[in-house]
Amino acid sequence: MKKSYKIIIFALLVAFSKIASAQDYEASLKIDYTTEDSVKYCVVHATSSDTSISGVEVKLYVKRLFSLLPIGDGVSTDEEGNAKFEFPGDIPADLNGKIEVIAKVEDDENYGSAEVHSESNWCVPRKQVAELERSLSGSRENAPIYFIVVSNLLLFGIWGTIIYVVLQLFKIRKTSKHLAKHK
Amino acid sequence: MKDPRILSEKTTYETFTQEEYMEMKSDLLRPVQTIGKWGKIWIAFLIMVCIAGVVAYYIQETRSKYVTVSLRDYTMWGVYISNFVFFVALSLIGVLMSAVLKLTHFEWYRPLSRIAEIIAVSAIMLAGVSIVAAMGRPDRLHYLFLHGRIQSPIVWDIIVILTYITASLILLFIPLIPSLSTCSNHLHNKPKWQMRMYEFLSLGWEGTPEQWKVLKKCIKILTVLVIPLGVSIHTVTAWLFATTLRSEWDSTNFGAYFVSGAFLLGVAAMIVAVFVFRKAYKLENYLTPMHFDKLGQALVLMSCIYIYFNVNEYLVPAYKMSGLHANHLLSVFIGKDAPLYWSVVFFGMFVPAILPLFKAMRKPVPLTVIAVVVVIAAWFKRYLIVIPGLAHPYMPIQDVPKSWMHYSPSLVEMTIVSATFAAMMLIVTIFSRFFPIISVWEVAEGKLEGKDEIINYK
Amino acid sequence: MESENENNGRRKFLKFGLLAGGATIASIGIQKNLLSEEKPLTGKKVKVLTADGHLVEVDSSHVEHHASNDPYTAEEIRKGVEGRKFIRVIDLSRCANERKCVEGCQKAHKILAPVEYLKVKRMQDSELTSPYWMPTMCFHCDNPPCTKVCPVDATFKRTDGIVAIDNDRCIGCKFCMAACPYSARTFNFGRPEQKKFTEANKDSIPDNYCRTSYAQEGTVAKCDFCTSRCEQGLLPACVVECPNGAIFHGDELEDTVTNGEDTFRLTELLRSRAGYRLFEELGTKPRVYYLPPVKRQFPFEEATEAHNTQE
User: Fold this and answer.
1) Among partner residues B148, B211, B222, which is closest to A172 by beta-carbon distance?
2) CA A38: distance to chain centroid?
3) 3-class secondary structure for chain B?
């Protein structure tokens, strides 16, 4: 009984100290884009009350529809407070033609969490969504032209013949003498 | 055959007298003139089965189909679809027994053609009914016309079936015109509306040379047209299966395989029909042992062709036994469906291919027995094409309730299927009670032209 | 049929009621945010009466019975989500047949076992190789054999890659089911338990709710990639529910897939892990890829229990 009591107290203390430390220092992040030897880099600068902070693990993401796509692994900031990420050049753009880059510090011991969003042009244009083509698996409006032509030719050919025969039958009626008499 | 009138005619057909023609007319009009007790009982029986079918359909549509019907996600096409295939196959009887024989100048077609055509028309109608019975939402049937996609084989099927029904009905009607005028001239004691119907439908037929010319021309055009149409309906029906990505139906052979099966079924059904009409309507002078002899020979030929296609359809994949085909093939060869499969092969193909080779087996009674066996086997053959194929998809069937794995038709389904048969026979029966089932003028014309093989046989 | 008409009527009534801003207090329960997912605004404004008697205008997404929770209309379901092409990768090495995806899917679409849009199959390629579990579903093929055969355009390919079904159009011919080599489709035969369940849960909004609810009686249903969730940028129910993160979902044009926890570049994932599609030789071009069951996270365990025993 006593033992568990102590454990709970200890846990509470640890938790409190964590919250306290996180509230003590707040980190803010800034994203810069640089190109060196035609390699694109994304540099995240971490500061806390205007002084650069080092040794904080920063993660870089690109926002996607369902989730955030991580760019490389997390990088710790150097003495100048910079975390440098090599940025891939082939990330497809969002619907608006740009990408949203997000840098995050996640649950750091001293600085808690922080994140910054930034819009970037370092993306490749999205592939266009192809219009639905005319195909056999397409909808009614997208039937292949040759298909419509051939089936209509067949239909008109056959039904034309049938209609011709029916019209011929009326000839029999017309030539009838006793029907004519009735009239 | 023993009719002295015919025997004497063999040498003197030029002297085919008015008297004899009148006798022939009265022979052929007899079933229309009077309906006997058994005829009425037969019609009443058929109507009762049809009513049972309507009740079953009402139950099926108003209650949960999960309860009334044995169809499940894997075997979602059941006995209705196999029955549909059977009826489409049956409707090819009109092509074979009327059009093909007519164009190839097999003169013995003359007394058979109308029987074949009315069976064709009624079968294709009931094929349509079977499809509607299989539909999940029959209340949306008209969507096929409102929203039809020309790329879908079902739409092709609807188009060719409607075209075939139309062409067959006209082809049934045109040679009927002179018979209608015969009816209106020679029938008596019939209700007024019936006589008026004959009068109206006969289009003022007087048998003038002009009218004959038009009539013959129309018949010729339609006879030619109906052959590709008939082949199409069954080929497109085969495509309903062959255009899917299921291994057991994935065959370039399928259209021809279906058509050959339909021709075999057509001959067998013709034999049964000829036998029944001959006995029931006492038409022994017109539907002669010669017809049975010829039909027996045709049965052998068609069985051989059908066996050929079956070898292609089953034994070639079986030789390769690819993983895709193995499940299905093994289930029909040695598995659950094997007893049915081998019975169908034996009774539906080898019996009709071998037995009628013997002359004694081409006599009316034995040949009819064989034909009945073939018709039954043909129905189960369609069952074997549809159901085991569906029960063996590419993806294994796992972790489903028992009823999802095995299909056996429910009482409701079987009642509806029986009703489609009854309805088909009812249409044929009623037709034969209003119109002469054998074309009077075609037979007479053949006789006049000296084609004594029509009703005579050496 | 009758209940469907009723439903329609009910929907119209509700819309009318909301727009009129009348005494619809009963229906202004604020939408609970499930799993802390923010519902995006629909842009449609509706007038509602607050508890203290004021008439206010709020976005329709805040109201329980708003149109964006109703099943899709025929026009809505035909339009693909703009600029998207949804795609899926399933990592077979992560599947332990826990069936959470199946259950989550059934819940989200208000369907009862034994109907499963998503099935987990025990596969074994040969006797010497190890068996593995394979979640299968509608693969939303780019050359779909099912839409090819549909006679009335009731199932169709959308621009966003989803193969959808218009349940008001379907005539129940089941041709699409015969055509699908993956047995992905299921038919509503009107199982009595399901009918009762559907009726009882008409208005409920289950976890991971998806607007394409179960098919009308006599029509076909199947996996819809949780269309309405995709539209809102929410992951489909099966992806959310999978405890092992075996199912990755994403937008092909963003070249990204995610299981909610891990996010990968699609092309990299498929290249490095030898992704493949089921029955490539059939030419259906599925939009669901598989990663082979190598370096498994779990040893294969036979399922000891049959789940769908009840008729």
Assistant:
1) B211
2) 27
3) CCCHHHHHHCCCHHHCCHHHHHHHHHHHHHHHHCCCHHHHHHHHHHHHHHHHHHHHHHHHHHCCHHHHCCCCCCCCCCHHHHHHHHHHHHHCHHHHHHHHHHHCCCHHHCCCHHHHHHHHHHHHHHHHHHHHHHCCCHHHCCHHHHCCCCCCHHHHHHHHHHHHHHHHHHHHHCCHHHHHHHHHHHCCCCCHHHHHHHHHHCCCCCCCHHHHHHHHHHHHHHHHHHHHHHHHHHHHHHHHHHCCCCHHHCCCCHHHHHHHHHHHHHHHHHHHHHHHHHHHCCCCCCCCHHHHHHHHHHHHHHHHHHHHHHHHHHHHHHHHCCHHHHHHHHHHHCCCCHHHHHHHHHHHHHHHHHHHHCHHHHCHHHHHHHHHHHHHHHHHHHHHHHHHHHCCCCCCCCCCCHHHHCCCCCHHHHHHHHHHHHHHHHHHHHHHHHCCCCCHHHHHHHHHCCCHHHCCCC
Domain A24-120, what architecture? Sandwich (2.60)
**Mean pLDDT across chain C:** 82
Judge: B159–A155 Cβ closer than 8 Å, yes or no: yes
Among candidates C185, C192, C303 on the partner chain, residue whose Cβ is nearest the Cβ of B64: C192
Distance, in Å, from the CA atom of A43 to the CA atom of A29, rounded to the nearest integer, reads 10
Given a cut of 60, whether residue C43 has pLDDT beyond it is no
Instruction: Give contacts of C169 with chain A, Cβ < 8 Å.
Output: none
Against chain C, the chains showing at least 3 CB pairs within 8 Å are A, B
The pLDDT value recorded for residue B10 is: 40
Q: Do A69 and C160 touch (CB under 8 A)?
A: no
Q: State the Cα–Cα distance between residues B389 and B246, nearest whole angstrom.
A: 8
Binding partners of A (≥3 Cβ pairs within 8 A)? B, C
- A77-88 pLDDT, tens digit per residue, is 888 888 899 998
- Among chain A residues, the shortest Cα distance to B175 is held by A169
How many angstroms separate the CA of residue B81 from the nearest CA in chain C?
Answer: 10
Chain C contact set for A136 (CB, 8 A): 148
Residue contact B151–A171, C-beta within 8 A: no
Interface test with B, best of C173, C188, C214, C307 (most B CBs within 10 A): C173
**pLDDT at site C40:** 57
Domain boundaries, chain B: 15-454
Does the pLDDT at position B323 exceed 60? yes
- What is the token pair recorded at B232? 């199409």
Query: Which one-letter amino acid corresponds to residue B255?
Result: G
Per-residue pLDDT band at B22 (split at 50, 70, 90) = confident
Q: What ipTM score was computed for the predicted complex, to two decimals? A: 0.88
Residue from C87, C147, C227, C254 to probe the interface with A (highest A Cβ count within 10 Å): C254
Domain coordinates of chain A in residue numbers?
24-120, 140-182
Q: pLDDT at position A10, please? A: 65
Instruction: Name every chain B residue with its beta carbon within 8 A of the beta carbon of A159.
Output: 163
pLDDT digits (tens, 9 = 90+) for C247-276: 999 999 999 999 999 999 999 999 999 999
Give the C-alpha separation, B120 to C63, whole Å. Answer: 61
- Minimal CA separation from A128 to chain B, in Å: 27
**Chain B residues with CB-CB distance to C97 below 8 A:** none
More confident residue, B448 or C5: B448
Mean pLDDT along residues A47-63: 88
Residue with token string 């009148």: B22
Alpha helices in chain C (DSSP H): 2-20, 74-78, 100-108, 145-149, 175-179, 192-200, 227-231, 237-241, 266-272
Domains recognised in chain C with CATH numbers: 2-69 (no CATH), 86-291 (3.30.70.20)
Residue with tokens 């998806």: C210
pLDDT the model gives residue C50:
60
